[in-house]
UniProtKB/TrEMBL annotation:
<feature type="domain" description="D-isomer specific 2-hydroxyacid dehydrogenase NAD-binding">
    <location>
        <begin position="110"/>
        <end position="297"/>
    </location>
</feature>
<dbReference type="Pfam" id="PF02826">
    <property type="entry name" value="2-Hacid_dh_C"/>
</dbReference>
<dbReference type="InterPro" id="IPR006139">
    <property type="entry name" value="D-isomer_2_OHA_DH_cat_dom"/>
</dbReference>
<keyword id="KW-0560">Oxidoreductase</keyword>
<comment type="similarity">
    <text>Belongs to the D-isomer specific 2-hydroxyacid dehydrogenase family.</text>
</comment>
<dbReference type="InterPro" id="IPR006140">
    <property type="entry name" value="D-isomer_DH_NAD-bd"/>
</dbReference>
<protein>
    <submittedName>
        <fullName>2-hydroxyacid dehydrogenase</fullName>
        <ecNumber>1.1.1.28</ecNumber>
    </submittedName>
</protein>
<dbReference type="InterPro" id="IPR058205">
    <property type="entry name" value="D-LDH-like"/>
</dbReference>
<dbReference type="InterPro" id="IPR029752">
    <property type="entry name" value="D-isomer_DH_CS1"/>
</dbReference>
<dbReference type="GO" id="GO:0008720">
    <property type="term" value="F:D-lactate dehydrogenase (NAD+) activity"/>
</dbReference>
<keyword id="KW-0520">NAD</keyword>
<dbReference type="InterPro" id="IPR036291">
    <property type="entry name" value="NAD(P)-bd_dom_sf"/>
</dbReference>
<dbReference type="InterPro" id="IPR029753">
    <property type="entry name" value="D-isomer_DH_CS"/>
</dbReference>
<dbReference type="Pfam" id="PF00389">
    <property type="entry name" value="2-Hacid_dh"/>
</dbReference>
<feature type="domain" description="D-isomer specific 2-hydroxyacid dehydrogenase catalytic">
    <location>
        <begin position="8"/>
        <end position="327"/>
    </location>
</feature>
């Protein structure tokens, strides 16, 4: 059987082809799945999609019309999939419920450290042989109060690194993680106290209706004026317009973002020649204390390999009539 894979990155393609070798043929496309590209999947019973696929009702109906029966998404998040419509159409949907939490946690710390120590600004200066230290002063992470919003596998990995730096840990989640609490000394508290007391705040919760714009104008006004905010989870956790306004009035000491709520159609594309029409993102990136990367926190050979291996298993489970913890809608 031949499988159609959408949104395959250049570094990902050989790993994906090697994983399916000896089992199935895989046709890799760079384009992302949406209602316009869905017809390309005609006659492919199984497709694989990336995190930025737009699996709304129109796309799902186009896939079903083309005789697609199974969607294997290569990501943990699935807020981009209309599961109700997929179920109505009889589509099987699976995701990757687990991959290396260290990839994302380490990258979140890379963002935090780069923002705190003005690494990007320093790099740009020294490239022009400007070796002054003006405006490059940061703060010790040691002794900071670090707030971890969401203490699942990734949040726990982030907290372990924070513990190694010698920080005071505050946590917020719907359920306490005993490892964070008992081994790392994290104190669970309300999200309001976490935001107001933390010197550094990192977001590690999924995007669901209750967490949409969790960081809004009210939340931003609770934060310390020199707090560092990091988001490597989902863009919709932050009200970007409110964030821009907070930065404009001098709030926050730094922001590191690997995700953006309107990233679809922007991230993973080369916009260097045409520029972008998104005024909010352009304004956000104009602040020197903001660092934006393009949803790459997961992008290590370890994590991508685990994602691909899980995707192969999901396809094999579907063909064998099995379900697993990755199955969102069974056959």
């Amino acid at each position: 059987m031949e499988i159609l894979a959408y949104g395959v990155q250049a570094d990902e393609k050989p790993l994906l082809e090697a994983a399916f070798a000896g089992r199935h043929e895989v046709r890799c496309l760079e384009v992302f799945l949406d209602s316009d590209t869905a017809p390309l999947a005609a006659a492919y019973p199984v497709i694989s999609t990336s995190v930025n696929a737009q699996l709304d009702a129109a796309t799902l109906r186009a896939l079903a019309k083309g005789e697609t029966r199974m969607i294997a998404q290569r990501s943990t998040g699935f807020n981009n999939i209309d599961l109700e419509v997929a179920a109505e159409l009889g589509l099987t949907v699976a995701r990757v419920s687990y991959y290396s939490p260290y990839a994302v946690a380490e990258f979140a710390w890379a963002l935090a450290l780069a923002v705190n120590r003005k690494i990007t600004r320093a790099f740009n200066r020294t490239r022009e042989f400007d070796f002054r230290l003006d405006g490059l002063m940061g703060r010790d992470i040691h002794g900071m109060t670090v707030g971890v919003v969401g203490t699942g596998k990734i949040g726990e990995a982030f907290a372990r690194i924070a513990h190694g730096f010698g920080t005071e840990l505050l946590g917020w989640d719907i359920a306490e993680n005993p490892v964070c609490r008992d081994e790392l000394g994290m104190r669970y508290t309300s999200v309001e106290e976490l935001l107001s007391r933390s010197d550094l705040i990192s977001l590690h919760v999924p995007l669901v209706p209750d967490t949409h714009h969790l960081i809004d104008d009210t939340a931003l006004r609770r934060m310390k004026p020199d707090a560092i905010l990091v988001n490597s989870s989902r863009g919709g956790l932050i009200d970007t317009q409110a964030l821009v306004e907070a930065l404009r009035r001098g709030g926050l000491g730094g922001v590191g973002l690997d995700v953006y709520e309107e990233e679809t159609g922007l991230f993973f594309f080369d916009k260097s020649l045409e520029g972008i029409a998104d005024d909010t993102l352009a304004r956000l990136m104009s602040f020197p204390r903001v660092l934006v990367t393009s949803h790459q926190a997961y992008f290590t050979s370890t994590a991508v390999g685990q994602i691909i291996d899980a995707t192969v298993r999901n396809v094999e489970d579907y063909l064998a009539g099995r379900t697993s913890e990755n199955t969102l809608i069974p056959r």
